[in-house]
Design goal:
two-stranded antiparallel ribbon, 5 helices, transmembrane helix, membrane, Cation:H+ antiporter
């Protein structure tokens, strides 16, 4: 659909949103609706749970959160030092290395969120995770595009 929209290059838009973007969003939401209706029709809810199992799960979650918070803290510091060393040894600018590391660091949590949603067989969570993430990125692009238009050809971020 995207390739067709780029090939046709329609200049028509609704509220400054291109027809191709609207069509892609409609197809995506129709797909979400279709998958959700299929999933609801085939699943049976399991309503019983054990209170002690819930307490153990919460304690494990708290311990895991603290452990991984420490791992992320140490890894972030190490990543910063590694990025500086890579930039110095390869001659690549530090901003390019930093941009690559930031792209990787911000994509991994999203990929893990989608992976866990699919592992839990919760297709709705995965679909809405992707939709919200894409809406957020589109909003950021619009904000920076507007700022660039307001400030002329100057760079918004350095």
């Amino acid at each position: 659909m995207t390739a067709a929209g780029l090939a046709v290059n329609l200049s028509f838009s609704i509220l400054s949103i291109g027809v191709t973007s609207i069509t892609i969003a409609l197809i995506y939401f129709l797909g979400i609706w279709f998958i959700s209706s299929k999933q609801n029709g085939n699943s049976t809810a399991k309503k019983t749970s054990n209170v002690t199992d819930t307490k153990i799960a919460i304690n494990q979650a708290i311990r895991g959160f603290i452990l991984f918070a420490l791992v992320i803290f140490v890894s972030g510091s190490t990543l910063s030092l590694s990025g500086d060393a890579i930039a110095q040894n390869t001659g690549i600018s530090a901003s390019a290395v930093g941009s690559i590391f930031i792209a990787l660091a911000t994509s991994i949590p999203d990929a893990m969120g989608v992976f866990m949603a699919l592992k839990l067989a919760n297709v709705k969570l995965e679909l809405f995770w992707v939709v919200i993430y894409l809406i957020f990125l589109s909003l950021l692009l619009e904000i920076f595009s507007t700022l660039r238009g307001v400030f002329g050809k100057t760079q918004v971020m350095r």
